[in-house]
Amino acid sequence: MISDSGKDALIRELEKLDTPISLKVFTAKVHCPACEDTITLCKTLTELTDKIKFEELSIDTQKELAAKYEVDKVPTIIIEGTGIRYTGIPSGGEFPAFIHTLIMVSTQTTEVGHLKEKLNEIKKPVVVRTVITPT
């Protein structure tokens, strides 16, 4: 899935991680062509750094957990403790953004700078959805 040269570059990026990150990866056995690749991707990440751990969960057999995390699509990767989730496999053009998100979560840094004051004014929960497609 990731070439050897790609793994070298990824290792350099993952060295930026500060605190450990835990991922919950929801999958399903039926009607999920991207689930297996998503698990392979997460396994690769855990092999390249000890700062990332993941747990595979099934929406088929762990329905209460899926309901708790409001997961109704698979694969879904939840970055624990953040409210951030990726639905679908973060591959192609989505992969660098996924890795960057993990780094920001681990280092507790963002690049919102000038927007920080405005974001702090928000007092009620909001949902922000960003849709990225390869095209």
Parts with pLDDT < 50 across at least 5 consecutive residues = none
Main beta-sheet annotation: 4 strands, mixed
Instruction: Count the E strands.
Output: 4
Helix content: 25-40%
Q: Number of folding domains?
A: 1
CATH architecture: 3-Layer(aba) Sandwich
Oligomer: single chain
Rg from alpha-carbon coordinates: 16 Å
At the first level of CATH, the class is Alpha Beta
Order of helices and strands: HEHEHEEHH
Descriptive overview:
Helices cover 37% and strands 16% of the residues. The chain has 135 residues and is an alpha+beta fold. It has a single domain (4-120), classed as Glutaredoxin (3-Layer(aba) Sandwich). Strand 1, helix 2 and strand 2 form a beta-alpha-beta unit. The longest helix has 14 residues, at 35-48. The protein is globular, with a radius of gyration of 16 Å.
Describe this structure in a few short sentences.
The chain has helices at residues 4-14, 35-48, 63-68, 94-107, 116-120, and strands spanning 21-27, 52-58, 76-79, 84-87.
Q: How are the elements arranged and paired?
A:
Blueprint: H1 4-14, E1 21-27, H2 35-48, E2 52-58, H3 63-68, E3 76-79, E4 84-87, H4 94-107, H5 116-120
Parallel strand pairs: 1-2
Antiparallel strand pairs: 1-3, 3-4
Characteristics of this structure?
Glutaredoxin; 135 residues; 4-stranded mixed β-sheet; alpha+beta; 37% helix
